[in-house]
Design a protein that fits this description.
Radius of gyration: 27 Å
Number of domains: 5
Shape: globular
Number of strands: 57
Distance between the termini: 40 Å
Number of helices: 8
Largest sheet: 14 strands, parallel
Structural class: mainly beta
Amino acid sequence: MSLLWLILLIIDGSMKTFCMISSKSTQLYVVPFPSLLDDGDGSLTHPYSSLQQALDHIKHNYHHDLLTATYRTTINLYPTYHFVNTIHINQIHSHMRLTTMNDNDIDFYKELAAREHTHRRLATAIISGGIPVTDWILIGNNTYKSIIKQSIFVNQLFVNNKRIVRSRIPTNHSEYLQYAAPLNNDSIKVHYGFQYVSGQFNYTSLIDAMVVIYHSWSTSYHYIDRLIPENNTILFSNPSDYPIGHFVYQGQRRFHIENLCEALIQNSFCFVNETKTIYLMTDGTYDPTKVEIITPVHEFVVLIVGDSATYPVEDIIIDNIAIQHSAWNINRTQLADGLWQAFLTTDSLYIANATSITISNVEISRTGSYAICIKEGTSNINIINSFINDTGAGGIRIGQINTPIIIPTNSINIISNEISYGGNVFPGGVALVIFRADNIAIVDNLIHHHRYTGISIGRQFGYAQSYTTNVLVQGNYIYNTGQHILCDQGGIYTLGVQPGTIIIGNVVKNVYSYSVFMWGIYLDEGSSQIIVANNIVYNTGWASIFQHYGANNTIINNVFARASLIPLPSPESGVPNPDGDLHIERAENHTSWIFTHNIVYDTYQGSNHSVYSASPNVNSIFNKNIYYNPYGASLLFGIKNTSFTEWQATGQDNDSLIADPLFISDVNQCDFFTIHENSPAAKLGFANITKPSKWTPGCGTDDQIEYHQFYHW
């Protein structure tokens, strides 16, 4: 099915739903000006002053009519900030649209807005889970303070839509502290502390500080219980998942300390909980008394949640608005660690027990956790043409982590969105993660600048029933993931047995971890029955494609190029070398994969380099592939790193060639990998791959555009 046809089907379905229920419609208006009285009726001439009033209007006035599906209620928001408590949309609000009012309606309030001077007009309405921070006092050296009146712990701050970082040691975000040793002599305390280097915690007050420890695929977050200066031991009030120090190569004993007021630098802040005081150091280019400063308060901003899967909220359209400023909170005894940073249980937009939901042309940004969560009891959820940016963790998470699943998440469409600049608080968050779910389409999305994996599919390790089936990942452009922060990651990552999962027509480039385990397409534990076709994968620190173990995967008509680009580690470090272009880790008594009609373009300059590496007795099938190295380096294959001739003598790749694939452009400058019509690959049956419309050329692992929402580590 083509992308255009898929989108038309979704739009057609939405239009049919709209026509069915729009025999009678109601327009409600919300203008959050203080001068408006609370006795408005929601009309254009007497608008409500809060979104909650409009939702209550629906609840109190249309209960019985809504159950017969005769109304479409549209809530029109004035294009400014709408600071809210968590918004709850439930069954009573079914058949509702939430949007920014049109230009004609906006103009109706022009005179009122001119008198108001408190809510400036924006491009769209913004539903904010935060509060403005005012009453700043200059205390010297471009440093200001403000006292918060709410009972909250401030750990995020946004100045003129720019994320301001919490103060941090080391102040250079590309650097880390390293602890002296783990507490391996104590099986409990090894989760609760480490032995530090003398002087690392010599600060006036550590009561509000947080220690962030880097493991492999995650970071853990700790409050300090006590220091034991006699043996330089620190103990935390909350544990890590794996023992601290368990991941030697990946973690390398790295940590940093956050929220120390003694570590303030330009454009950073700290918070003293006892006095509820925020301290902000500017760079001198703005005055906090004259700019817009917001701190998030609510962990959920919008909830679309029915009472149960059998009594869901139905037919909700949210379009042309923004949802911003969700909070994150970790209590002092909570385990705050783990794969996908799944300990985070709140999201800016949370959808459960819901059906026929369309989120279109919506921005979700400046989040503390993930942007969107689509959980149990959901079906026909469509996220289309939206912008997910500047997230604390990842972008979108779909499905359930745990079993049993009574009514699984199914029929979810994530189409033509941009998901970018994530992991600003929790770098282990994934741009788009699918757990246990069925019939999921991830199509034509732009995914970039995340500090961990781009797309992750599956929840079940090994060969047990996965409850993840029929996932289509098509035409996505995924680049600049990893950002040299964590380890053990992929541009596209899979886990477990996945009947019907197809990864097709994607471009993955620039996947780099901190030190080891960074693959373009990563088929992890038990990944089986997956088709990987028509993808282009290039500029990866380790192999273009790696399979830990799995069964009966088909790898067909892909281009794998410019792999294992990370510099070789020093021999004394003990860190493993990159693993070539293709890699299967574990041998099992079944076919691991069938690898056919692919192009492997190797750019290694040196000797003893594997194109394909595998453990002894791996069962795989290779044929009709093209391999090439433009520098004349010897290409080695298989378990024993044999020559191509010896490799063919084992019965593999008998109809394959080592030959120039004749790309039309300069692929060493990372132009698109399109072959000439007389390419030897074409003669073996390789078909050119369609270039995604969002694809950008170049080999650089970062762009030169200044994105004010994102700070680099």
